[in-house]
């Protein structure tokens, strides 16, 4: 294979590829239908011309036939009058018109056959064009649906990598983090409230215990007149132990203050 043949093949393949990519089904169908309609118009014109020619031939045939019959009558009339020479001339004219009529009859028969064929082709082409119109509408609808589907798939595919979709994902994650922080803060606030109430309850117990302890420590002869008096030795012993009790009381107060 020569260099020019290879170059020619490469150029043709590239051109075919460009043409294939440039072909739009809807436009191609419209163009094909237009061409078919142009063919239909030309065929109709051809049929009309053939019919007009057939009509003209038929008229000529009838005229020559009529002339042939007229000269036949003239020949008969000349013979009746005894003019044989005139009859012979009339028969020659009859022969000429008759031959022309026979030729026109053959032409007319051929034209009628041709017209019949053209009419059948016209009907077939009209049927094909009607079918093509229906198919064109169907194919256009399918092409439009395919284009819409392709665009939709492309849009969905681009959404997976688009910055807008990424922004939505980031914002969703951010909202989820905010919700998690809010939930954590709520849990911490609830725990702190419970701890405060627990401290209050503990403080109440300590205060009650401290009040009871104070009441026990403050009992003496003036506040316990209803009780039997203790021996003197016990009073002295209790008085001797009062500083120890006071020290313990101070320790308890310090422990309460640290709570």
Automatic annotation (TrEMBL):
Pfam families in the cross-refs: PspA_IM30 (PF04012)
Coiled-coil positions: 47-74, 108-149
Family to which the UniProt record says this protein belongs: Belongs to the PspA/Vipp/IM30 family.
Region of interest: Disordered: 217-259
Extent of Basic and acidic residues compositional bias: 250-259
Alphabetical UniProt keywords: Coiled coil
Keyword Coiled coil: yes
Biased composition (Polar residues): 221-240
Keyword Coiled coil carried by entry: yes
Species of provenance: Chroococcidiopsis thermalis (strain PCC 7203)
Protein name, as recorded: Phage shock protein A (PspA) family protein
Stored InterPro entries: PspA_VIPP1
Phylogenetic classification of the source organism: Bacteria, Bacillati, Cyanobacteriota, Cyanophyceae, Chroococcidiopsidales
């Amino acid at each position: 294979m020569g260099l020019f043949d290879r170059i020619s093949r490469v150029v043709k393949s590239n051109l075919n590829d460009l043409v294939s990519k440039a072909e739009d089904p809807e436009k191609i169908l419209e163009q094909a239908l237009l061409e078919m309609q142009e063919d239909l118009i030309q065929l109709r014109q051809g049929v009309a011309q053939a019919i007009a020619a057939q009509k003209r031939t038929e008229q000529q045939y009838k005229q020559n036939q009529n002339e042939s019959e007229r000269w036949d009558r003239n020949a008969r009339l000349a013979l009746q009058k005894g003019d044989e020479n005139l009859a012979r001339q009339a028969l020659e004219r009859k022969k000429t018109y008759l031959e022309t009529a026979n030729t026109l009859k053959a032409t007319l028969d051929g034209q009628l056959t041709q017209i019949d064929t053209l009419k059948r082709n016209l009907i077939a082409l009209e049927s094909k064009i009607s079918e093509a119109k229906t198919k064109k509408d169907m194919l256009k609808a399918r092409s439009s649906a395919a284009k819409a589907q392709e665009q939709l798939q492309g849009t969905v595919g681009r959404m997976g990598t688009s910055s807008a979709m990424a922004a939505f994902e980031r914002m969703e994650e951010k909202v989820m983090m905010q919700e998690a922080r809010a939930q954590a803060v709520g849990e911490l606030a609830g725990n702190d409230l419970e701890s405060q109430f627990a401290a209050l309850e503990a403080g109440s117990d300590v205060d009650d215990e401290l009040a009871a302890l104070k009441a026990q420590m403050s009992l003496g002869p003036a506040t316990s007149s209803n009780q039997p008096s203790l021996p003197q030795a016990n009073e002295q012993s209790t008085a001797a132990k009062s500083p120890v009790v006071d020290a313990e009381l101070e320790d308890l107060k310090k422990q309460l203050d640290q709570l």
